[in-house]
């Protein structure tokens, strides 16, 4: 599947999640493709479990179970890789950084495998696996209770370990994000931990591909600590970015085609 099709399908999910029911005709006009193309997109998204079809349109599955890390790794792959490359370019030798669990932060860990004189603390098993052989990186695991679905650690033991460190930069992921409410996740345990991660870090970055902007898939939220930086990809529309810019959030848009 080409980048244009992936970007279009990500946008359909975002629109359906934020505005609810959308007809084939509305999506066709808004995205500039034929109705038959939209129907193929909807069939693909339904098969992937991202949307529920209704007569003539698409409706977001707001009660859909949390996607596993394995399911998320293949989603918007090129966008995540470009976001991770930009994030890696911000890190300086000698710094101590904190990586959230998730597929995009796992991609960032991949970018850091050849770093020198760097300390990385993480809650993500995939990040640990990426950095296991990185001899120039000092790795700290914030252990705790493993959430099998996200392959990340949370809970009181992870919070206790976090309280003993401070960080130059934290890189967070999210199931969704809005300018008003912050980071959306499946559980309050996750959102509490993300807030603690932000409190312990000098610079806060949220790494999310465009389809997650404005999404509210669950009911647990983490308030963002000002100032913070939103890093997303070029599939993000001006309308999706405007609420963040209006709140003076530093917004970085990377182009996967030039990553």
UniProtKB/TrEMBL annotation:
<dbReference type="InterPro" id="IPR036390">
    <property type="entry name" value="WH_DNA-bd_sf"/>
</dbReference>
<dbReference type="InterPro" id="IPR014036">
    <property type="entry name" value="DeoR-like_C"/>
</dbReference>
<dbReference type="InterPro" id="IPR050313">
    <property type="entry name" value="Carb_Metab_HTH_regulators"/>
</dbReference>
<dbReference type="InterPro" id="IPR001034">
    <property type="entry name" value="DeoR_HTH"/>
</dbReference>
<keyword id="KW-0805">Transcription regulation</keyword>
<dbReference type="GO" id="GO:0003700">
    <property type="term" value="F:DNA-binding transcription factor activity"/>
</dbReference>
<dbReference type="InterPro" id="IPR036388">
    <property type="entry name" value="WH-like_DNA-bd_sf"/>
</dbReference>
<protein>
    <submittedName>
        <fullName>DeoR/GlpR transcriptional regulator</fullName>
    </submittedName>
</protein>
<dbReference type="InterPro" id="IPR037171">
    <property type="entry name" value="NagB/RpiA_transferase-like"/>
</dbReference>
<keyword id="KW-0804">Transcription</keyword>
<dbReference type="Pfam" id="PF00455">
    <property type="entry name" value="DeoRC"/>
</dbReference>
<dbReference type="Pfam" id="PF08220">
    <property type="entry name" value="HTH_DeoR"/>
</dbReference>
<feature type="domain" description="HTH deoR-type">
    <location>
        <begin position="5"/>
        <end position="60"/>
    </location>
</feature>
